[in-house]
Amino acid sequence: MPAETAAPAEALESNPWVSQAARFDYAARKLNLDEGLWKVLRYPTREITLHIPVQMDDGRIEVFTGYRVQHSVARGPGKGGIRYAPDVTLDEVRALATWMTWKCAVVNIPFGGAKGGIICQPRLMSQGELERMTRRYTAELFEFIGPERDVPAPDVNTNEQVMAWIMDTYSMHARQTMTAVVTGKPLDLGGSRGRKEATGRGCMLVCEQAVQKLGLNRDTTRVIVQGFGNVGSHAALLLHQAGYKIVGLDEYDGGLYHASGLDIPALIAYRARNQTLQGFPEAETRPAGELLTAACEILLPAATENQITTHNAARIQARIVCEGANGPTTAAADEILRDKGVFVIPDILANAGGVTVSYFEWVQDRQGYFWKESEVNDQLRHIMESSFQDVIGYAEKHQVDNRTAAYMLAMDRVAFAIKLRGIYA
């Protein structure tokens, strides 16, 4: 194949919007989706591009490009995080907004899908610069977000503090305190107990269901986790506490491996002290990325998109892939994993614990009544387990893989809502 045709093919595989669209089209055909609804659901309802002027600490003015994409609000307000990163693209934000629509529908909560991002280098910016950028971004989006319109949340390189700035800015414009405009806030500003651990806990809960489904035993189930941020660290800790053997952790700067199992609480403490996993004395070091294809029963990619591709999918040895990240497997790699018989728990189910507890937070803010952490975790368990069974049941009924089943189930629910509402003319 000539070089000029090979490069675009690789670029297309790594484009999350292309991957999302390929999966959508495949599931739509399986579902025999009405052609008109196919057109409605395939594209976002609204895409907003912003150019955000910010005065930097040295006095100069910098202009940052930001996005907010709202894919669907058929079942309720848009819902989705905001990420700050140098590689944010409109295609990425489009794909993530669309995945949020399906994710909310899979777990049957009354939200649609949205996503936001700003192209920036957050690690090179001061706290003041980040605050001024966040507040200007929020002010520009004021008429498009809100508790009944679109409810942002944290994502890559954003956190409770960023959500507090958004909530405050929105409230100042609305002339009243509006805690329900964002989720993932500090507890003292209307956040929910259990929110920080929710995505990792959801991953643990669906892994438990998959292990039972495949007849595996906890104490002999080896787990490899890629990414040790909020999702990966909490998933690893909860699986460790449940009796699973976490034999490998893979990070951007290298991996750690121990055949008898890593001490996850000790690793979390070590990382807090040293800001890295490297140098941890009770493990073998491995090159970054190598552990993705190491022997294990559960592989839990919880880093970023496009980690399992046509370049490494054939070498995946895990029996279960639980997608803690959004889009860690490319559409082109799906068929390879399917042919290998890998039991994939797709991202729109596996990592839906975060948006589920965000829903709980939104409900609590609107009620002005806050739940105990045990109540949050009990409700999360119920939703994740029942959603897992819904997806598996759909897969078996329609003789499709789990990802296609999750898409079909979600699309069916959103399409049904659109049909009930009708098309406003």
Care to describe what's here?
The protein is an alpha/beta fold. It has two domains: 139 residues, Rossmann fold, CATH 3.40.50; 234 residues, Rossmann fold, CATH 3.40.50. The chain is 46% helix and 17% strand. The protein has 14 helices and twelve strands. Strands 9-8-7-6-10-11-12 form a seven-stranded mixed β-sheet. It has a five-stranded mixed β-sheet with strand order 1-2-4-3-5. Helix 2 runs parallel beside helix 4, helix 4 packs across helix 14 and helix 7 crosses helix 8. It is globular and about 55 Å long. The relative contact order is 0.13. The N terminus is likely disordered.
The rounded distance between the terminal residues' Cα atoms is 49 Å
Assigned CATH architecture of the largest domain: 3-Layer(aba) Sandwich
Instruction: Provide the low-confidence segments as ranges.
Output: 1-7
In sequence order, what are the helices and strands, one letter per element? Answer: HHHEEEHEHEHHEHEEHEEEHEHHHH
CATH evolutionary superfamily of the largest domain: NAD(P)-binding Rossmann-like Domain
Strand line-up in the sheet with most strands: 9-8-7-6-10-11-12
- Just give the CATH class of the largest domain: Alpha Beta
What number is the mean pLDDT? 95
| Count of strand segments | 12
Global shape: globular
- Structural class comes to alpha/beta
Rg over CA atoms: 21 Å
Q: What fraction, in percent, of the residue positions are helical? A: 40-55%
For the sheet with most strands, the description reads: 7 strands, mixed
